[in-house]
Amino acid sequence: MNGPVSHPYENVGDMQIASRYNGPPGSGNGGWSAGAFAVAAGAGADGRAFEVTLRVPPPLETPLTVADGKVAAPDGTLIAEIMPVADAGAGVPPASLAEARAAAEGYPGFAEHPFPTCFVCGPEHPDGLRIFAGRLPDGRMAAPWVVPPDVCVETMWAALDCPGGWSALQAGPVYLLGRIAVAVDALPVAGSTCVVVGAAASVQGRKAVVDSSIYAPGGRRIATARATWIAVKR
């Protein structure tokens, strides 16, 4: 567990979410966007945990100002809030690569997907991460993940996003990411195959709390997340 960070945020200027990193049509993937905001606020692959709360869907190809722990659109709309936190949850126990591959064959998004072009888990995204998490016998979700050449901290936040979310989607409604805390200990080797696992901690009303972890080849856990997802109308 990492201790809380108390330093103030610096004004870090403008950034934007490229259209490649979409989630629902017209908005950024929650995990990638949150990761980009966290990196702008100082997050790295150093074990420190940061939490991002998304206030509205992150817009694509739009200049966003990141300053003092807040992300704002040109018209002043608050997009997200960022803060360092003590940890990113306890994580999810590992699954073997063979278990993950078998689970992925039953990925529910192959049959029905609310956002089939999602950068992380959309079967119809032409250049996405293609993380297709399926259910293990104990209810956890698991998927193999071939690490892309351009892997970065933002990629890790994205990879942790949807496998946890699908553990909530099994309950029926469509959920969108509302808040996520992530700690990245290390980046995996490009071209290697990691295992991503997710599990629902609680589902109450419109709110689902989920955990996820990434395991490198050899079984080392290299990233962990705890996220809150909110059910929305289809």
Structure description:
Helix content is 15%, strand content 32%. The chain has 234 residues and is an alpha+beta fold. The chain folds into two domains: 13-85, Thiol Ester Dehydrase, Chain A; 97-232, Thiol Ester Dehydrase, Chain A, CATH 3.10.129.10. The protein has an eleven-stranded antiparallel sheet with strand order 1-3-4-5-2-8-11-10-9-7-6. α1 runs antiparallel to α3. The termini are far apart.
Brief digest:
By secondary structure, the chain is α+β, with helices and mostly antiparallel strands. It has three helices and eleven strands.
Order the strands across the largest sheet as they lie in space: 1-3-4-5-2-8-11-10-9-7-6
CATH-defined superfamily of the largest domain: Hotdog Thioesterase
Q: How much β-strand is present in the residues?
A: 25-35%
Number of helices: 3
**SSE series:** EHEEEEHEEHEEEE
SSE-based structural type: alpha+beta
What are its keywords?
disordered N terminus, alpha+beta, Thiol Ester Dehydrase, Chain A, 234 residues
Q: What are the SSEs and their pairings?
A:
Elements: E1 13-15, H1 30-40, E2 49-54, E3 64-67, E4 70-72, E5 78-85, H2 97-104, E6 134-135, E7 141-146, H3 153-169, E8 174-184, E9 193-204, E10 207-215, E11 221-232
Helix pairs in contact: 1-3
